[in-house]
Amino acid sequence: MLANPPQSLLATNQKRLWMPEQVLFTPAALNEDWGQQILARIESLGIPVQKLKQNRITGLRGETERETYTTSKRTLAVVTAPASQFKLTPIPPSADWQFHLAQGCPAHCQYCYLAGSLQGPPVIRAYANLPEILDNLKKYENSEESTSYEVSCYTDPLGIEHLTGSLAECIRYFGTRDKAKLRWVTKFDNVDDLLSLPHDGNTRCRFSINADSISRTLEGGTASVMQRLQAIRKLAVAGYKIGFVIAPIMPIENWHEEYTQLLDAAKAALDFDCDLTFELITHRFTPGSKGVLQQWYPNSKLDLDESTRSVKRNKFGGVKYVYDKDTMKELRTFFESAIAVRFPKAEILYWT
Ligand code: SF4
């Protein structure tokens, strides 16, 4: 029998859900049963719906990038996933394959990983042909050993779940597979509708968490870290495998104290045995992501100073700015030992 949640988690009310100002449906999306299911959800929430005459999403560009950003982030477009998405790509070190139930995210993180990696206005596109997307995954399953699939590379799937129901459908689908495993990560906390799903232990739900001052100043529109801890506790109690993604790790002033507090709070939330992993990701940026982020968040205090960073090149010649070797080593040593003390059974999947 589980003890009640610790006092520190009791006062965290659920975050208000993201409600787009407009929802656009393409004709192709309306032709799909899953698209009709999404339409019924949106209409029941009373959100204005626009049924488009063509399958292209247009009219989101403003006078400036910031204007385009603002309009796009208030818009949900329900579309069909293009053919290119049926050819899956690997996503090391997180999973064997990535697939997508949507592209674009309703949150406003000033370090957003999507900046520079998605083309066009950052509108949130949810896919109406989800059954076809799920059916396609079988082609990539390995019959000998388990195959993992990451579904949160281009979106926060829980952030739009109340509008689509697509994450629950993925969890149900993976619950029917023997060797396929689902992984998703979020900064939201509306998990109640997921608790009784037949997941069969095949889904790992991860929560992205960070030091309080980083989350408060750089993460907009998300649940608070304490709300996320409350949500992960609920999922663990419901028998899900769980995980923390601590990202992006930054050596801010007082980082020892702040990250110690974070790990103490995580420990208080998970004061029972559970299947837990950690992924540790330090902050990095590219010239492309810096350019986009500065247009989206012109007043951000995010540190994007190349002169204080080391340069890392990938095999295609692309450049990334990361922390220098000594800082990386100090951070890594801290996290590995602080996690081992509090969660001796948890595996650290990777440090980067
Ligand atoms: Fe970007 Fe992730 Fe934040 Fe969404 S939750 S805005 S994808 S960093």
Features:
binds iron/sulfur cluster; 352 residues; Rossmann fold; 2 domains; 17 strands; 5-stranded mixed β-sheet; alpha/beta; 8-stranded mixed β-sheet; pyruvate-formate lyase- activating enzyme; 12 helices
Which architecture of the largest domain does the CATH hierarchy give at level 2? 3-Layer(aba) Sandwich
Strand order of the largest sheet: 4-5-9-10-11-13-14-17
Low-confidence spans: none
How would a textbook summarize the main sheet? 8 strands, mixed
End-to-end separation in angstroms reads 37 Å
Q: What would CATH call the class of the largest domain?
A: Alpha Beta
- Integer-rounded radius of gyration: 20 Å
Q: What fraction, in percent, of the residue positions are helical?
A: 25-40%
Explained architecture:
- The structure is a single chain.
- By secondary structure, the chain is of the alpha/beta class.
- It folds into two domains: 1-14 and 188-283 and 323-352, pyruvate-formate lyase- activating enzyme; 17-181, Rossmann fold (3-Layer(aba) Sandwich), CATH 3.40.50.12110.
- The chain has twelve helices and 17 strands.
- It has helices at residues 7-10, 27-30, 33-44, 65-72, 130-137, 161-164, 166-174, 212-218, 225-237, 255-269, 287-296, 325-342, and strands spanning 22-25, 49-51, 75-79, 89-91, 95-98, 102-103, 108-109, 124-127, 147-150, 180-186, 203-209, 219-220, 241-249, 276-282, 310-313, 319-322, 347-351.
- The protein has an eight-stranded mixed sheet, with helices on one face. A five-stranded mixed sheet has the order 2-1-3-8-6.
- A hairpin with a 3-residue loop joins strand 4 and strand 5 (95-98).
- Helix 10 (255-269) runs parallel beside helix 12 (325-342).
- The model has no long low-confidence stretch (mean pLDDT 95).
- Iron/sulfur cluster (SF4) binds next to strand 7.
